[in-house]
Protein: Cytochrome c assembly protein domain-containing protein
Organism: Pseudoalteromonas byunsanensis
Amino acid sequence: MLIISLSLFASLFYVLATGHVLSRLFHKEGPNQKLTIVLSTLAILAHMLLLVNSVFTSEGQDLSTVNVALLTCWVIVVSVTTVSLKLPATLLLPVVYGFAAILLTSSLFIPHHIVMQTINVDLGLVIHISLSLLAYCVLIIATLYAVQFFYIDNRLKHKDLAIMHSHLPPLMQVERQLYQLLTIGTALLTLALLSGFVFLDGMFAKEFIHKTVLSLAAWVVFTGVTLGHHQFGWRGKSVVFSIMVASGLVTLAYFGSRFIQEVILGKF
């Protein structure tokens, strides 16, 4: 009952925060920052309490795909909300808040209990998992910035006067932040892959090869786009599309097979 209450409470305030930001998206002064922070903070705290109660159970640690996804989502929400305190992120907030609300609500209907009685603390494994989680979160935020860049650029090319008086950030600022995040995320993904090859056995074993191949494919795309931008000034629609494809690949690598096994096939 506590899990359901926390999920619904967090979802409600994520929805309220989303609605407030969207209602002021094209207003010159933008959303009320204090109200946005209050609504999102209540949602974030409830989301955090949900994670604590979902992962740490009396039987052990529940590290199912859904719980890992909820944790990843929480990190992204906290990161984007923190960034919004200093930099304009008006277009990103309703996306991350809205997705968080959908994920929290959906988690109530998806069976996701995988209890581990003990967790063997392996320093190499901890390093690999931490780097992988950080890399994924940063790269997903970079992807959101890419989508934001494409949206603003497209509106400007169509000479939409409404965007000129909106609270959306300047195009060049979004582009600069996009490639900063992309560079950091790609570096973290590089370290995550290297740590996997160094500390883990069987990266190319039958049960893990799809994750390794998808992660390497995503790394190739991210690295290519990052180097292409810094060396040759690559930008525009093709770059945004490439970033989205790479994000899709790394998402499949991190969550795809586990979701199929745990949820669709019911192998707990």
